[in-house]
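Problem statement: downstream parser choked on a complex file, so we are re-checking the raw output for the glutamic acid run. The parser issue turned out to be on our end (a line-ending mismatch), but while we're here, posting the original submission so the record is complete.
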Amino acid sequence: MVRVRFAPSPTGHLHIGGARTALFNWLFARHNNGNFILRIEDTDRSRSTEEYIESIIEALKWLGLDWDEGPFRQTDRMEIYQKIAYKLLEEGKAYRCYCSPQELEERRQRALKEGKTPRYDRRCRSLTEVLDKPFAIRFKMPFEGETYVDDLVKGRVIFKNSEIEDLVILRSDGTPTYNFCVVVDDFDMKITHVIRGEDHLNNTPKQIHIYHALGMELPAFAHIPMILGADKSRLSKRHGATAVLSYRDEGYLPEALVNYLVRLGWSYGDQEIFTREELIKYFSLENVGKANAVFNPEKLLWLNSEYIKLTDEAMLFEKVKPFLIKEGYLKENESVDISWACKAIKSLKERCRTLQELAHAMRYYLLDYVDIDLKAKAKYINSDSIPILKEVTEKLASLDEFTQPNIEKIFMDMVNKKNLKLGQVAQPVRVVITGSTVSPGIYEVLEILGKEKAIKRLRRVIDVS
Ligand code: GLU
């Protein structure tokens, strides 16, 4: 039975890289009918917060990555780690280290100055007596030999044991450290595959030694490539939004983000758009590449627009509602005729890349009046166009059935009788009605907006001109 875990440290919001790791674990579990476990690695109490835990959980839920067990919290398991650390101490596989943080820092600085890699010099490893001083527990790494990591993505990676330091497993304040807890937990939680970012690859040989010392069987390891920004440096805030929830707030659909994330390091032929069922069916670690992936916000935006096109109008209305309310285009409990809303969305969804853009466009269907873009106003609302606007407005006002064909007929009659270009009639109307020079077909917009609002909006501009 496959069992995988996502183990975030709640020292920040869930970001693109973490979400991709969670997704790969989730897909691997679902593909193999296994279990996906959520574990919060919060032993670093000074940097972990409840707020980040909640925010990570909210982001995972939004992405639709549901877990079968957890969330477990490492801070609930402190006694377990302490007990095992002492067991290693008793068995002579670990030792008391009395070096104070200041001493260690001084030695570190000295090593750096001398151009050496700072590493604990193992001076307490040979102590035989027990001192009456605070101590940390350090793990005894082997002095020589090599450690192989047979990684499912990277293949065999070889580490020299002489380069691995005797790491602290339990600090002098009794708190355990990451490399130690992760082994204890992965074993206790019966994790079969550890799938995580390549930035953890250097930790793996350390963890392997701890597994051996505890007589525990190793899980399989899969280290997935890093995500870089366009400049090929590690993805960070400099490259734009990296928090998953900011994509939600900007109007991205979770399915689009999931689809985008999966392609950061994984591929299936040339296919770009996948349903969730397809992802579960096709996902495998064999198709995770070795090369680092580059985060491309433009492609994410493109995928989002594709997903908006694929989503049916009623569903999109539900999704866009919070944005409409936030912008003040819709009141909290205002009832909207759903078939009307669907028509409005249908006219717009091909041209909007995010829910935010869709909400913004919908303002001209929902509000009584819209602000007109100043440039558009200067160009299209002037002494030449006002008489045309007046005439078209009065004709529209006299229509009984305010439908696209009838509206079109009015425009075409004016164009033909006065020898005008269609743009001379349509553009001023469009600018008044939508506030800008680009919109769906103006006849369609007018029909959806409805006669009353359309005439009011046109007359208001005519009256002040
Ligand atoms: N807590 C670690 C992190 O957030 C993950 C550890 C792991 O997956 O082994 O980077």
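For whoever reads this later: The radius of gyration is 31 Å.
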